Amino acid sequence: LAAAQADLDKAERRVRGYIANDAGLAAQVSALAADQQRAVADIQAAQANVRKAQIDLNRRTALVASGSVSADEVTSAQAALTVAQSSLSAARAGQSQASANRTAAVGSRQVNAALISGSNVANNPEVVAARVVRDMAQRDLDRTIIRAPVAGVVANSQIQIGQRVQPGDKLMII
């Protein structure tokens, strides 16, 4: 009976944990949605930097023939364009990661919601099942007491400890 009661208590704590965990998962989903928005902004900024670096490179390349710009400045502009393109790639990877993280968090919340949907601690299936086991253990314990129909001293016992009996079985002589 004590083990069944402990299992019931454990099931109730577990379900309370599911319910408490739901709020944390909701906050996590919201935070990861904000990360996705930040990643989109990072991509837009990186795209602007690529456009600026491309325009700067085009201007310098056009002026190199006239001698107004040195080859070193063109090389620097090419390097700046490469860095801007790399930053854009990194921003896109960051967006993919933010999206995957949010999708995973949404999935975790959905799993948790399935565990608590339409129930509270008292009527959660895990708790109900543990309560049934506890009640059966209590019933079995209650049935271990056998009362004699008359008062007296046992003269001969015909049963062993742990043996199951049926109504009408001869157990002892009083």
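^ that was protein a. below is b, sequence first then the tokens
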Amino acid sequence: NGFDPVAMLTDWDVGTTEILSDGRTLRTFQVDAEDKEIEIAPGVFFPAWTFNGRVPGPALRAKEGDRIRVVFRNLGSHPHSMHFHGIHSARMDGVNGTPGMIGPGEEFTYEFDAKPFGCHLYHCHALPLKRHMAKGMYGAFVVDVRPARRLALPGHSVRGQRGCLSAAIGQPLL
């Protein structure tokens, strides 16, 4: 994305989709941890740890109620994980000693339902936490309100409302 913050805000990764037998959408994301030297200003480089080769990591976007599958591969040189704040089960928390902590060359699949709606943070949960985040291992996970729920929110007009960040940047709901 170079240095264009507007491009970064509108560069959604919506994954690939398929319909499950219960009628819900399965939304699959491929995320790779990798060591990469990134240009942070013209001619200034930083040895980052990245999600999909970028800092911040990709902005993942789904609809409330979607089944989320994140196939996470660690192509980097340190143990890494993905921790979705308050969303996935504790057994996939990505802290040392849990199945979500992935060594170099390993892969793990996180699976959970996209709820609650809103703007959420994900980051690497390996220790030391602040080092992994300072090296670039964080990103946004946006869950749009499902259309039926938007209409049912008491006291709220839905005319012109498009979900988290979307109203400001003109991006439609999924």
